[in-house]
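Continuing from the previous page of notes. For each protein in this section, the sequence appears first, followed by its structure tokens. Read the first protein now.
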Amino acid sequence: MDGRVYRQAAAALVVVAMLGCVVPASAQVVMPLPSVPDPGYFSVPQGPAVNTQLASTSTSSTSDKSLAEQIAELQAWQAKVEASEAAAKKKAAGAPTVKIGGRIFADTAMFSQNAASVAQGVDAENGLEMRAAWLDATGSAFDVIGYKLQFDLSGQTSFKDVFLEIKELPVLNAVRIGHFKEPFGLEQMTATKYTSFMERSLGDAGVFVPARNMGVMAYDCSENERMTWAIGAFASEQGDKPPATSEDHAGTALTMRTTFLPWYDEATEGRGLLHTGVAYSYRAVGDETLQLRARPEAHLGPYILDTGTIDVDNYHLAGAELAYVYGPFSAQSELFHANLDMIGAPNVDLDGCYVFFSYFLTGETRPYKRNAGAFNDRVRPHENFFRVRGEDGCAITGKGAWEILYRYSYVDLNDGVVAGGRASDHTFGLNWYLTPYTRMMFNYVHSTADRGGVDDGVVNVFEMRAQVDF
């Protein structure tokens, strides 16, 4: 029994020593030893008394010093890694980068028209086409210099966006030089791969809204991305095939746009917002001739409005924008006005507008890109049509995203000596987003035009599109 008591006392000393290795001295509590009988009970002579607290403190100090050294070594290693990563990032920022992308639109359209439309000279024929086969490369060099090369390979190769830009400049922030869209109109500034309908509204490109031209533009947005602005000078009326040579009397244009978000729901990242915007363009006509015309919101369709060639010295374009998004519902509208300074005749005023509504049956929302002031982002279905593969290797499908739409658009190209006609379109749409990069589009257009002394010319269009972008 006496030996058992001695062994218990020795074990207690070992425990105290071990605790001193892991517990800081300031937090240690001296553990009392079990009561030990009179030394006379033991047959072994007693040595000097052991101060357990002093031994524990000495061991702890050695351990604390080792731990401090380890922390210092870790901090030094972390600083070295961070410095290495910063150097690699700086080196990568100076190296040119490139990202390849593109889009493919395959369209088909079927038409019907009444006798009045035929009497107006409109000849609508069924057809199919590769509406877009675009290939593009975007990238940067030295971090603040960006570029884009974009071509349409469907039919005759044509320029789209071909430009370079310098960013992070004082005051102006960014300057773009090359061939690109003039800053005018919400629908126009939204890329075709993101537009809600197969074609833009009746009064958009070709009538009231300038498209791509050679020029230079400065642009920026506010720090909270609630406001954007852009202003540029362009060689006007070039289209997608800018000339390689200049002319003494080439057309010029000054175009500007600004947008503002009075309301943007930060908590839901834009599932609720209100967009406003205005745009203006002054355009000097180089050869003093101009032609405005429009199709019935179908690229395969014929022109139903046409001013013919008219003599114009210069003209002014103005536009106002309004868009509202609340969850799966959205509404969008624009007003257009053109004032033409005619040669040998009084000035002419022409007008147009559109309004459209859309609703996602599956609960998604129209994504908005704040620093661009446009709906330049892709719809991401809650559940892709092609989701995952099962154990048997077959694809398990979902619903995708479904969107229904309606648009009314109106254009009046009659005033004074100009008689281009007037038309209104009712367009019904259904979009099926299989994935964020793939969608099917179905549009029905009922178009009515008054032109050339003949009223109520009707063209009906049913069109479909298969679209993929990457």
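Done with the first. The second protein uses the same format. Note its length before scrolling.
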Amino acid sequence: MGNEGQVFDLEQDEELRVEVECPKNEFITVELKTGTAEIFGTEMVVNTKYKYLSGSKFAIFTYHGCQIMIMGKMEVQPYTSKETPMIMYLNTHAALEQLRNEAEKENERGPICMVVGPTDVGKSTLCRLLLNYAVRMGRRPIHVDLDVGQGSISVPGTIGSVLVERPASIQDDGFSQNAPLVYHYGHKTPGHNTIMFNRLVSELAEVVRERMGTNRKAGVSGVVINTCGWVRGEGYNQIKHIAQAFEVDVIVVLDQERVYNDLVRDMPDFVKVIWQPKSGGVVERNQEQRMEGRDLRVKRYFYGHMGNLFPHSFDIKFSELKDRVYKIGAPSLPESCMPLGMKPEDNQTKFVLVPLTPRDLLNHILSVSFTTTPDDLILTNIAGLICVTDVNVEEQKLTVLSPQPKPLP
């Protein structure tokens, strides 16, 4: 397909679904020519060009009709559809807004909404939509991301929360990351270390609860929680733990009626459980695409969405890092081989010193903790992340990539 512009005329309550597949380092531009439209709840500005790189997938929705122009080479033809759950999602927002109004009148806490479902059903998109709509109503909700495989607030392998004060940027593909609260987990699935994951969830829930108590606007606006796609077995138990820790009162289940029925059975009566269909525009990802997505999240953390950030590279002497680099979780041992009084699950939260060798550190992402004592490592939020780009054993130094110049905190 050539570089000529394609024009799409959308009718009321219709969406244009776009999958960007173009040569590397190239992009397409999307422009709203007339009417009103939005991308995942963020309003588009007329005659403004939005750039999208290869691999991007998004939908442009209009409540009243619009004209869209797309410029650039595309291998997959965009298409329009009227079969969309957007009106249902809008009704969910309206119900949450009603709960916020009631909380405002009664001087109580606003709704805490959790979105659950298997992988590739649009959980992150629905969370973004609900948060954007809330902000457009003048609210200041808290976004909590527990999807360690995706890591929309920081990078994969972390969980965190952020106060949302303005709609997500279309261009930067996310919410403003001013003062996010991030915790280190270190794995791409919550099943890798369930004990640690549950402890982090409980700690984050407590901090969010305190934030809602001290910030009246955030307290009334409530919380929107994104979860991972593990909904069977221990994954379902984690969903129940999240609901209990955050004192969730609204659960939106996407796509899977089995999970919906299980939650209706297991949740207290005051928890409203809602089932909603996934959008027909949701694209399923294979293992390779998930890996590419995680790599892209890490790259954007250091270099920005369009390569507009410039990280710092500097050396750190081994002597400065002596007894300061840890990983959490030791190999499991049979109960018969463990010290008296120690349980097998204790190994999952045990601190292990990491040798300063290329095998253990090269091309690894390290969290930089605010704490000065190992005992507080798990439940202390992190200052940021660095990437080890070289380990020089002869000169006894590491070379790291960091968003901020040295020294590290």
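What the second structure shows: The chain is about 25% helix and 25% strand. The two ends are 50 Å apart (CA to CA). We return to this in next week's lecture.
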